[in-house]
Write a sequence for this structure.
């Protein structure tokens, strides 16, 4: 009888400890739709009409270990913009990540996503020029 009692206690303890974890794991948004990221490019000493921005988002990895890779290229009047700061705001992260363009006007950012389904969504890019700002949306 003592062994049976210990097994029942262990079973109840197991349920008490792991049921909340199972509930949390099953109740999270696992549809793969991720609101990522929002890019805000700091002011560039260039009129908005002369700024050309190309943003690309690629998702790599596999179930439970996805990576959202953001690549941005910025030019002003055909010339690469070096040192432009880009704030990448991922929907599931509180603070934005800051990335900067290099001599070729390129910048890259990467974030891990832990969903079983492949992430998809939109990227919102805001460019602030010397005279105005413009927003573009990239779907991935």
């Amino acid at each position: 009888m003592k062994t049976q009692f210990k097994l029942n206690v262990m079973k109840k303890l197991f349920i008490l400890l792991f049921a909340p974890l199972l509930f949390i794991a099953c109740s999270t948004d696992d549809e793969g739709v991720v609101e990522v990221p929002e890019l805000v490019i700091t002011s560039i000493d260039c009129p908005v009409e002369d700024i050309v921005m190309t943003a690309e988002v690629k998702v790599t990895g596999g179930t439970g270990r996805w990576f959202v890779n953001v690549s941005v290229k910025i030019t002003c009047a055909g010339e690469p913009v070096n040192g432009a700061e880009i704030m990448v705001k991922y929907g599931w992260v509180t603070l934005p990540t800051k990335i900067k363009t290099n001599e070729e006007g390129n910048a890259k950012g990467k974030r891990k996503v832990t969903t079983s389904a492949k992430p998809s969504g939109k990227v919102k890019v805001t460019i602030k020029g010397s005279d105005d700002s413009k927003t573009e949306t990239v779907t991935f």
